[in-house]
Fold:
Amino acid sequence: MTRWTIEAVCTGTARPFHGAELSAFAKRPREGAVQVLEEGLAPDEQADRTVHGGPEQALHLYPLDHHAWWRERIGDHPALDEPGGFGSNLAVTGLTEEHVHIGDRFACGSALIEVSRPRSPCWKIEHRFGHKGMVAAIVQSARCGWYFRVIETGTVAAGDSLERVAIGAAEWSVARVFRAFNGGKASPQDYAALTDLETLSPYLRAKAAAKRS
Structure:
């Protein structure tokens, strides 16, 4: 399968999240066409730009397939009924970390986007859902989601297609890369290969270079 339907396009605004701390973690569906720019959807906010957003993390996709998996583990939660419940910009069913590779390119509406890196889980997931152990479950299962960079700007709307038009590093699925950095399941040769993987985000290439020595 090379084509999937975008069930929702979601954006967020920075809101109080943890005391005085702001976050745009919760993403809400948008109606109509949304601009896809170099740094992501317009408008879409990231409260802490030191770790979120930017060209290498322009769009986030967390598979809708995982919502049912989480429901079995933490029970019903209102955010599991939301397409952007895990901070995802694109809501898609049938596409997961095992089947997506670093450097894969997708036509997203009229834009062209490229897989840049897995998403690293943080405490905000557990705070949003009110359950401890979710980060550990993501690390164990590699149900992490991933980021895209934007190759060609355009627009996207719910109902548009997400079509894979080119496969990148076929040996490096998002799941495998995530496990290399989070599960300790990588060899020095793996880190050398990741260091040289040009379509991997510069941050993770530098991290791989540090681990290879």
About this structure: The chain has six helices and 14 strands. The longest helix spans residues 202-212. The first strand starts at residue 3 and ends at 5. The two ends are 39 Å apart (CA to CA).
